[in-house]
Design brief:
alpha+beta; five-stranded mixed beta sheet; 51% helix; rod-shaped
Length: 480
């Protein structure tokens, strides 16, 4: 591993997670070991004291208080000698004192008995039964118990029993040594395991990073794998995919706008340039100037309509929902407003526009969740197409009906769309094959479908017999 790779690893999130986990685990295990060691020492001391007290109680049964010398030698019976104590019985010493502290009898190591603390006042306490004391003699440590005993005549004495307690220190040293040797090994092993677990857990990050690095403007359709882990990685991949989807829409909207603009604006600009060249080629009469002005005005109006439609498509494709505020809209009002705006164009061709609403429709049925401007553009393009491709003196019908939602249909009496062309109706610049010489931008139906998709509506088209076309828009049933 090179220095760069090592530096990258040490600065990586895996190493930091490992260090944090190891530190937390180390603190926890040290605290746990401290509590266990302390509890073990306390429990061992209690067990040692209990055994020493029991030994003293057993030994007190051998004391003959009625004799003057209280038996010079005390020894457990053979049955009692079979018991096991956490100390060496041969190293245990005893002494017998009066309540005032006078030593009446002693064991083997008399000099140790002199060092056992004794409080004369304790012997006079009625509640006093036994007391424990610790003694240190050089490197040796002793534990002693003072036990008050009495005969049946009420005479009381103190039996003192002491034994070496270094075994408790040895046990404490062993458990501390065990902790000092095992805890570092446990922390090291936990660090290695946590590094391996962190490496496996962060595999989705590597996949996400590699995928994101491979995404460019040319392959924005590429998506991150959506991990079925129900955790932050799945949420992160979903967030990235939503971001990529928005970016793809924005790039595609930009590309479509540029492509549409370069394709559609080229023709009217070429026509305008040609008209101006012809106008400047030689002197023209007033009638010629008026003719050219009308032609230029038509081309400019066509460009204005084209730019408006291109911008509208760009906004829809870019997913700019904030610029279109959805809300309750009466669809019949939008249609009547659209028909009113398109009446002058219909009168130029002597076309009669009919608006029909089924009698069973209620006001609530006519209200949908939509955006008035977009719906107006959609119906305007449908009506404009119907007028454009209908013969002079014909009729165009707008119908509203109720079914699984609201149906809005636009029917004309033109040539209709060929069955072979129906599958291409969603293209960006669809023009009816027999009508390519008709004026228009060729993107009207694309706008219609984009707006219908934005409103979660479906749109269909069919050729009527003997002639005519029928476009039908179905809006989903509204929640009451």
């Amino acid at each position: 591993m090179s220095f760069i790779d090592l530096n990258k690893t040490l600065r990586g999130i895996r190493f930091r997670l490992t260090m944090v986990y190891s530190l937390c685990f180390g603190l926890f295990i040290c605290l746990f070991a401290f509590i266990i060691t302390r509890e073990f020492s306390r429990s061992s001391q209690e067990d040692f004291d209990s055994a020493l007290l029991n030994y003293a109680i057993d030994l007190s049964g051998q004391v003959d208080i009625e004799t003057a010398d209280f038996q010079a030698k005390l020894k457990l019976s053979e049955r009692e000698g079979k018991k096991r104590f956490p100390f060496i019985e041969e190293s245990t010493n005893y002494s017998i004192r009066s309540l005032e502290g006078e030593i009446l009898n002693e064991g083997k190591h008399d000099h140790l008995q002199q060092k056992i603390p004794y409080n004369k006042e304790l012997g006079k306490e009625a509640r006093y039964t036994h007391r424990f004391h610790s003694i240190k003699e050089g490197k040796m440590k002793f534990r002693a118990v003072n036990l008050k005993i009495a005969n049946n005549k009420g005479r009381e004495i103190i039996l003192q029993v002491s034994t070496p307690s270094n075994i408790l220190d040895e046990q404490g040293k062993r458990i501390r040594l065990l902790n000092f040797s095992l805890i570092p090994i446990m922390i090291l092993l936990s660090g290695i395991v946590s590094f391996i677990i962190a490496s496996r857990a962060l595999v989705p990050i590597k996949v996400i990073t590699a995928t994101v690095n491979s995404i460019a403007a040319k392959n924005l359709s590429l998506r991150l794998p959506e991990f079925e882990t129900n955790d932050e990685f799945q949420e992160l991949s979903l967030t990235f995919n939503h971001l990529l989807e928005r970016l793809q829409k924005s790039f595609e909207a930009q590309e479509h706008f540029v492509a549409n603009a370069s394709h559609q604006l080229n023709t009217p600009l070429t026509i305008i340039k040609g008209e101006l060249d012809v106008l400047e080629s030689k002197g023209r009469s007033i009638e010629d100037h008026q003719k050219f002005n009308r032609s230029l005005r038509e081309e400019i109006e066509r460009m204005i309509e084209l730019v408006k439609n291109l911008l509208l498509i760009a906004r829809i494709e870019a997913g700019q929902e904030d610029s279109f505020r959805m809300g309750p809209v009466r669809i019949d009002e939008v249609i009547t407003s659209t028909i009113s705006r398109m009446q002058p164009k219909a009168r130029d061709k002597n076309i009669n526009i009919r608006f029909n609403m089924h009698e069973d429709l209620q006001i609530d049925d006519l209200i949908i969740d939509g955006e008035r401007q977009l719906l107006g553009s959609m119906f305007e393009n449908l009506l404009d197409n119907a007028i454009k491709y209908s013969p002079v003196g014909s009729r165009v019908s707008f119908d509203i009906a109720r079914g699984e939602g609201i149906f809005v249909s636009v029917k004309d009496e033109g040539q209709g769309i060929k069955p072979s062309e129906l599958k291409n109706i969603l293209e960006k610049r669809f023009r009816r094959g027999a009508m390519t010489l008709m004026p228009g931008t060729g993107i009207g139906l694309s706008i219609v479908y984009k707006i219908a998709e934005h409103h979660k509506a479906t749109i269909s088209c069919e050729k009527l017999q003997p002639q005519g076309s029928l476009f039908k828009v179905q809006f989903a049933k509204q929640n009451s």
